[in-house]
C-alpha cells in the first residue's frame, strides 16, 4: 500500500535517512557501523524521478566524472541500450536537459541504470522504477534492470507484482511493518 514505508526502507539502507541503531543491516553489519562515503559509493538508488542535467547523454551517465568513453559505452551495451542510443540525434553526444533532447520517464530511468553500472555499485535499490511509464517502455526498463541486477544485490520497491517476478525473496509491508517475508513461490 501507499504509505507503508517502502521508500523509507530504501532511504534507510543508503542512509539518506538515518535508521535507529540495530535496525538496518547490510551484509550482517549495522549500516551505522559502515563508513558513510563507502556505503553510498556501494549502494545506488534509482527513484521514480531521475534528474537529467544540462549536458550530453554521456556526461549524464557519468554524472560529469572524468570516466573513459569506453566505460560509458560498455554500460550502454551491457544494458542493451545501444540501439536506443543510436536512435538519438547525436548518440552519446546528444545534448539533454534545458534546450536539449527531452527524454521520456522510461528513458530517464535507463540513464539512471547506466549511472549505477558505470559506478559499479554492489547494491542497486530500484524504488518504484517503473511507476511512471507505459507498458512498452516498462518492458525495456525491466529488461535493462535485470541486466543491471546481474551479480548485484537488488532491493526492488514496487506496487506492481510484475516488477518483483525475478526476486528471490519478497517482503510485504503494511503500515510500516513487514507482514510477510519469504522466498518467491
Structure explained in plain terms:
Helices cover 37% and strands 19% of the residues. It is built from 7 helices and 9 strands, in the order H-E-E-H-E-E-H-H-H-E-H-E-H-E-E-E. A 3-stranded parallel sheet has the order 3-6-7, with helices on both faces. Helix 4 packs across helix 6 (105-119) and helix 6 (105-119) runs parallel beside helix 7 (135-149). The protein is globular.
Observed structural traits:
9 strands, three-stranded parallel β-sheet, two-stranded antiparallel sheet, single chain, alpha/beta, 185 residues
Summarize the structure.
The chain has helices spanning 6-14, 36-42, 57-62, 69-78, 82-87, 105-119, 135-149, and strands spanning 25-26, 29-30, 43-46, 55-56, 95-96, 123-127, 153-157, 169-174, 177-183. It is an alpha/beta fold.
Q: In terms of per-residue confidence, which ranges show pLDDT below 50 for 5 or more consecutive residues?
A: none
Strand count, sense and closure of the main sheet? 3 strands, parallel
The spatial strand order of the largest sheet comes to 3-6-7
Strand content: 15-25%
Number of helices: 7
- Going by helix content, strand content and strand pairing, the class is alpha/beta
Number of strands: 9
Mean pLDDT: 85
The end-to-end distance, rounded to whole angstroms, is 21 Å
Radius of gyration: 17 Å
Q: Percent helix among the residues? A: 25-40%
What is the ordering of alpha helices and beta strands? HEEHEEHHHEHEHEEE
Broad shape: globular
